[in-house]
Amino acid sequence: MNRQWFAGVGVARVQSVLSLALREGTLELHRQLEHSAFMQTLLRGQMDRARYCALLRNLHAIYAALEDALRRQGAHPWLAVARCAGLSRTSALALDLAMLHGDLWRSDLELQPAARNYVRHVQHLEHAAPGRLLAHAYVRYLGDLSGGQILRRIVRASLALDGPGGTAFYSFGSPEQAAALARQFRHGLDALDLDASGVDVLVDEAAEAFALHGPLFEQLMAAPQASGGAGMPAMPA
């Protein structure tokens, strides 16, 4: 497991219910990532449009790889919960990028090495251990459904957005609908028939997902700012 970014942090295994095991087993990793310079800039409403678009561009590549893999491996018994209606974010990210940057966002905005590494990791899992993709869906989707709803308000204020455009990434319908999706996802996790080793596998992979975000946020923070064009994970609760 790539834990270099999270020096000295282990993975706790204190729960047998999968959703709780994932939460408790990655709690310290979540806290470290949330307190990174990049996430603090975003949470404090201090991120400009160019850097925010850079984040969305890199997340788009990660989501595209993950959601393509989830679709192709849909028959895997662990992955049905990650493919429920309303969760997919790839198209929403593309809408936001077109609105906030412009139609040339794919060619204009750079993919960071850490995002490329994340994509390679997802592609490797698809063929070598597809069930582990569930841990990445947990980290991303539950983050979007919980902390992402707070980020939606912060982004709208910090980028001075008028109207609904520019934050489709965080849009899951009403707050009640977002909460219902989160409950459905957690219930799906807990309905899986896993033994202790299966729970450990997914907790380990969720920790890896957090670890893969760390270098990406560092690289995005360090990257020179470019034009904002024409026009975070949040983490699970």
Give an overview in words.
It is a single chain. This protein has helices spanning 18-25, 27-34, 37-43, 49-72, 90-100, 105-108, 113-128, 133-145, 147-158, 175-191, 196-222. It has 237 residues and is mainly α. It has a single domain (18-222), classed as Heme oxygenase-like (Heme Oxygenase, Chain A). Helix 4 (49-72) runs parallel beside helix 7 and helix 8 packs antiparallel against helix 10 (175-191). The two termini are 23 Å apart.
Key structural traits:
single chain; 237 residues; mainly alpha; Heme Oxygenase, Chain A; globular; disordered C terminus
Quick overview:
The protein is mainly alpha-helical and 237 residues long. It has helices at 18-25, 27-34, 37-43, 49-72, 90-100, 105-108, 113-128, 133-145, 147-158, 175-191, 196-222.
Helix-strand layout with pairing:
Blueprint: H1 18-25, H2 27-34, H3 37-43, H4 49-72, H5 90-100, H6 105-108, H7 113-128, H8 133-145, H9 147-158, H10 175-191, H11 196-222
Helix pairs in contact: 1-11, 4-5, 4-7, 4-11, 7-11, 8-10, 8-11
Average pLDDT rating: 89
Query: Cα-atom Rg, whole angstroms?
Result: 17 Å
Backbone shape: globular
N-end to C-end Cα span: 23 Å
Count of extended strands: 0
Would you identify the CATH H-level superfamily?
Heme oxygenase-like
Low-confidence stretches: 5-15, 227-237
Class from helix and strand fractions = mainly alpha
